[in-house]
Amino acid sequence: MAATSTRGTGSGLRWGGIAGIVFAVLFVVGFLLVSDTPEGDESNAAWVRYFADSDNRRMIVIGAIVWALAVLAFLVFLGVLRERLRSSSPGTEWISTVAFGSGLVFVAMLAVAGLGAGSVAASVEFGDAPVVRDADVLRTFESLGFGALLLFGAAAAGLLIITSSVAAGRGALLPRWLVVAGYVIGVIVILGGLFFIPLGLFVLWVIAVGIVLLRRPTLTP
Q1: CB 109, CB 152: distance < 8 Å
Q2: How far apart, in Å, are the Cα atoms of 64 and each of 28, 69, 92?
Q3: Is 91 left (phi over 0), alpha (psi -120 to 50) or beta?
Q4: CA 17 – CA 210 distance, rounded (Å)
Q5: Residue 183 exposed, middle or buried by CB count within 10 Å (0-12, 13-18, 19+)
Q6: Contact 164, 181 (CB under 8 A)
């Protein structure tokens, strides 16, 4: 029975690790696809011309779909991480709950970003909507999506990193260097979101945690 439990734990950690790495790849690919729009201060004509191109619209829609797949991968990673944090050390249940809730908020903000970036293009590609000729509408949808991700999403991601680091440090779930780095990265991600700094550090943290979960089939320090 103990051997079966150990194998199950190791399998769960590996799935969580794989899901974290898959999320990171999909998040970056999706971001590159949906963010290749004109700069905000470019002319109205440039914005309308960009969205009038069906290839550009398809690229944005594909990027939004990739982000949807990234959400699924992140939920698997988050679920495994929550269980590991809860079982790593007594008394950390509330911390792991905060971490889990923060991760769900990040997922919600990523979904808002995907909808904001892809809704106009999708309505033209898959619906009967005409190509939008009002550049302000196009800018507003994109600003709404990325504002949700880079402000509220970054705050939630930073809190996830910090709370995960606290619980993981108590239970020796993660290496000491990654725990310490998590405190620093978490603060930077929270403050960086206020200035619309990209979530690159968060993605790197997820990759690092994913690799640790893959390489640690048990919870030994």
Answers
A1: yes
A2: 12, 9, 35
A3: left
A4: 4
A5: middle
A6: no
Name the residue among 113, 81, 82, 110 with its Cα closest to residue 17: 81
Q: How far apart are CA 26 and CA 66, in angstroms?
A: 6
- C-alpha–C-alpha distance, residues 135 and 79, integer Å: 40
Q: How far apart are CA 193 and CA 128, in angstroms?
A: 36
Name residue 211's amino acid. I
Q: Tokens 């909507």 map to which residue? A: 129
Q: Is 92 helix (H, G, I), strand (E, B) or coil?
A: coil
Report d(CA 139, CA 123) in Å as an integer.
16
- Look-up of token digits 């998040």: 27
pTM (predicted TM-score): 0.86
Cα angle vertex 188, ends 186, 190, to 5°? 70
Contact status, residue 199 vs residue 189, Cβ threshold 8 Å: yes
CA dihedral 142, 123, 64, 37 (to 10 degrees): -40
The Cα 91–Cα 98 span in angstroms is 13
pLDDT digits (tens, 9 = 90+) for 129-180: 777 777 778 888 888 888 889 889 999 999 999 999 998 888 778 889 999 9
98: tokens are 């905060």
**Residue reference for tokens 């991700």:** 149
Q: Going by C-beta distance under 8 Å and a sequence separation of 6 or more, which residues neighbour residue 44?
A: 135, 136
Query: Which residues, other chains included, contact 110 with Cβ-Cβ below 8 Å and sequence gap of 6+?
Result: 27, 67, 70, 71, 74, 149, 153
